[in-house]
Amino acid sequence: MSRLRIQQRTRIFLGCEGQSEQSYGARLSQIAEAAGLHVYIDNDVLQPGAGDPFALVQMAVRRIAEKERKRGVFSLRAVLLDRDKWGQVPDRDSQTAPLAARNHLSLIWQIPCHEGFLLRHLEGQETSHPASGDLALQALKRVWPEYSKAMPAIQLATRIDLAAVRRACTVEPTLASFLIQIGLLPA
Question: Which of 5, 8, 81, 82 is most buried per CB count within 10 Å?
Fold first, then answer.
């Protein structure tokens, strides 16, 4: 009798500010699976964090420690962070990158917010940089009227595919770095 050996997936932690980012992480998982990658992206909503980058990174560090105690080490760790809150509390902001570095945590910046980040995935919108979250949402809804916050991954799939992710990576270096490390993009 032969034994089947099941290959364990590479575990990746992706901290998310909210449900919209969690859906995006789930969509990245689907894209990675379709590309034949054997990865598991653990999309963890870091609440309460209220958009404060330092608080979100602190929460990510705690969640990673908890999950690694239970299920083993993550091969890669990252957090999606909105940039629109940056600068409101400079003392805390200055601690964000060092804390992330000490904990081997990559920061994926969404400028100015998740909707602006998503906008740059869409054809012809790669260089769009709305100045605020409200303007980003308006711009995104102009080119994607069906979009709504916390849209499930299955609905994101109507517009966010591997080509869209590659398009965004031409102008989103922190996302590109993360996806290269996963193996979704060539080095």
Answer: 81
Question: For the segment 87-139, what is each residue's pLDDT rounded down to a tens digit?
Answer: 888 898 999 999 999 999 999 999 999 999 999 999 999 999 999 999 999 99
Query: What distance in Å separates the CA atoms of residue 92 and residue 46, rounded to the nearest whole number?
Result: 17
Q: Is 49 helix (H, G, I), strand (E, B) or coil?
A: coil
Number of structural domains (the chain) is 1
- Pairing of β 76-82 and β 39-45: unpaired
Residue 5 forms part of a structural domain: no
Q: What is the pLDDT of residues 29-58, one digit of tens each?
A: 999 999 999 999 999 999 876 678 999 999
What CATH number is given to the structural domain containing 122? 3.40.50
